[in-house]
């Protein structure tokens, strides 16, 4: 597993680390997921959850832990969460510090099932996030059925937003929408200082991307305090 921080520019601190699958030679998540057949999907999803929590505990993480999950690997939320609950108890990881990010939404045919997963996880104390919003199948209509706690805006809407009026208009609209729905907004794929500052001035202070830090295998990386303090002072 690799970890990438999600920061809050206004607070000048890291709030969450996202756990990302990597191969034994550092191969990307996409290359690993491409090898997972449907009959192994459940076991793979469970193994990733368990390893992410174990490693976060071993590394002394004090922030929230965000874990991607594949909805089609969850046949029944209460049954499928048992391994997560067991490892959380074993290492002393509070469930309220776990965020489940919904991925692979293009493969989900049963929206009712996905909504049931989100509601069940929330009832158990977990937080849920909808990933890659604004790209591919993760679009506005999902919010008619789903009620995530967090929404992660895809890099497609973020890149060059500081001098792209169309992207700025879309991001203002998304910000107003999630504020009204009571959803926390996170910008993914922030790669430049100009993007980070423009987003923060709009009120999108939760950010993730290479400008802040790249994912590091089995490491939480360096302290981002000075970097974030300098950024906050420029707002």
TrEMBL record:
Q: Which CDD domains match?
A: EAL (cd01948)
Molecular function terms, GO-annotated: cyclic-guanylate-specific phosphodiesterase activity
InterPro entries according to UniProt: Cyclic-di-GMP_PDE-like (IPR050706), EAL_dom (IPR001633), EAL_sf (IPR035919)
What PROSITE patterns does its record include?
EAL
Residue ranges of domain EAL in the record: 1-229
Record's PANTHER family?
Answer: BLUE LIGHT- AND TEMPERATURE-REGULATED ANTIREPRESSOR BLUF, CYCLIC DI-GMP PHOSPHODIESTERASE PDEF
Return the protein name: EAL domain-containing protein
Q: Which organism is it from?
A: Halomonas nitroreducens
Print the organism lineage: Bacteria, Pseudomonadati, Pseudomonadota, Gammaproteobacteria, Oceanospirillales
